[in-house]
Amino acid sequence: MEDPVAEIPRVIHTLCQAAPSKQREALEKYFTPSASFSHPICRTGSFNGSRWLIWCIYRWYKVMSPRIELGVDSVAIGKQNLHKARTAYDRQNLILYVSLHQLFRIWALPFLSARVSLVTVLHLVPERSSGSSPTKYLIKNQNDLYQASELARFLSPFGIISSLVLVLQLLATALCVLGAGIGWPVTWVEENVLGGNQERSLEEVVKG
Question: Can you list the positions of beta strands (E) in 43-127?
């Protein structure tokens, strides 16, 4: 990719929605031979030829859900958030952050579907070029990040598990509130005796 920010939406649509032969062409064109793939459910590792495993994952993805509705919501690279024009580019970090949403249906269970959101983190590497050719960038690592509640939608019929995850998250928040109340003396000592998060020696603490 000469312009990763502008080109990555098309690459993602090809990988998720195109025919298997087009998927493989995209992987061979835009991923390094030793590219790795990480997902909450599966991963490949990185070694010579690991790109083939990524193709198998995308192919099985198409087998399970031949018609996937997918949209790219936003793209950012490095530490810069990009608006829809996607004109900024940070060559120092070479990390793309892509916010996506998709509607996933398994063909054998058409009455079940999962509408989920995720962030895909893509680590890029410059491809060696000869002469004055513009630098092109390949993907060396893809890491798909899901919230627990989003991942549960893949695994739960009729939203049962995702609803349970939501209840557990709310319960954890209530426990945080309870813990904050019970543990207030600890924070009081930190704020008034130890000086907040500032590092102080024992001698300084004793002297106040």
Answer: 69-77, 80-81, 95-105, 113-127
